[in-house]
Amino acid sequence: MCGIVGLFIKDPKLEPELGGLLSTMLDVMCDRGPDSAGFAVYGAGAPGAVKLTLRGPAGTDFAALGGRLGLPVAPRDTHAVLTIPAGREIEVRARIATLAPEVAVISSGSRMELYKEVGLPADVAKRFNLAGMAGTHAIGHTRMATESAVTTDGAHPFSTGPDQCLVHNGSLSNHAGVRRELEREGLRLATQNDSEVAAAYLTHRMKGGDSLGSALEHSLEDLDGFYTFVVGTESGFGVLRDPIACKPAVMAETDQYVAFGSEYRALVDLPEIGKARVWEPEPAKVYFWERAA
Amino acid sequence: MSAGTNLAMKSLGSDDARIVDLSTSTLRELNGALHALNATNETLWRVLNPRGLHAIAAGVDAPVTIEIDGHVGYYCGGMNKQARIVVNGNAGVGVAENMMSGSVHVTGDASQAAGATGNGGLLVIDGNASARCGISMKGIDIVVKGSVGHMSAFMAQAGSLVVLGDAGEALGDSLYEAKLFVRGSVASLGADCIEKEMRDEHRALLAAKLEAAGLAGEVDLGEFRRYGSARTLYHFHVDNVSSY
């Protein structure tokens, strides 16, 4: 099964409530995916700075690691966000690999932070205090594993490019072939998960100059299988369902937000939901929203 | 339908309605109460705050009216017998699936597999229905005022599907004897589904279904086209073996 939730805020007044709203949506989707959960939040960024989300084993002393790197770090349970000057990412990644080889860098971007863990989604959201996070948009996932093991690495979202993330409900049938092609192009994938291949595919397309919308259009040609994707970029939020619409999806839009849920149940606590336009995204149709630059 | 149902259809005031608020009552309490209905005077039920819950008013077998104020989740009104169920909102997957009799009216859109496997009764959807509307229907009548998605009426055995808008790809694939009427465009016909001549008997049938859905005189019968089974697939023929 799996559950997906996503929220793209249009009215800045609602931005402080982003994490709280997404947390409630994620709770409701626990029964679609009790194995593990994750979410990506597009929060505040500083000019010239990059945020690296780190993940380590339980008990990792992120404050000490930040101290040794001489960089500000904000730990949250098994994860931490390290803020670094843009341009030093390669060097900092290399130093982390040396100083703390057990710590993985799971995302990088000017605004995106990414958290995921094995466990009941409601508990995962609490561990990271999702409810306290603010931002412009966020995507979450509750996983019932089908294509790979229940591990933190296999949890969604997957991030394969700066400020880019993807969550997936479904399973891809040609991911091994697409993976080989992407690896030939120089992309490095961290897991054996089919959804990470979809994320890397979109990253590859966008690196080649595609917009998010155009990258999603191309995935209709190149990715085979069942999927509902919800994708985030620094400024955008996109949705795509496979041509036979195997996996459920409901969307709601008001003047204040655009929301996605695997089921309408996930959306019922959003503000003014009774007045929202609620619809089912059509199969093989790309939907995306961009924030004004 | 009983006189009680007709009375309820006229009187939608809250005075004589039994109100169940799903923000304070559980779904099981609601459905348990509906399943316990026998020769009842409680002929009008109003369900508040459905919050997209699944299986609301599923398995009802009593001549009552159930009005649900808001969007519902999966299988709303499933297996319905006798009851008249109105959803004032959108319905999730499988609304009125396997309905036996009575009616389900969705004032918004319906998700996939609306009316799936229905044996009888009337399903009216004011908005659009998505993919696989009427899949494997066995006698239900479905009227969709908007459009239907792909693979609608797949393996439909009996009953009728009337679509005032358009139909998606592969309409009526592997169709048996259900009768399909579409006013708008059809993206493509499924295997063994063909357009058929609209004769007087079909116009009469279509008019009756439209009337049942409250659309008498509102749409021009001449704008509809009829689709049915070419009957080449459902008798075994060795030349068709690759199509089975």
From TrEMBL, chain A:
Signal peptide: none annotated. The lineage of its organism: Bacteria, Pseudomonadati, Pseudomonadota, Alphaproteobacteria, Hyphomicrobiales. InterPro entries: GATase_2_dom, Ntn_hydrolases_N. This is Glutamine amidotransferase family protein. It comes from Ancylobacter crimeensis. It holds the Pfam family GATase_6. Residues 2-292 form the Glutamine amidotransferase type-2 domain. Keywords: Glutamine amidotransferase, Transferase.
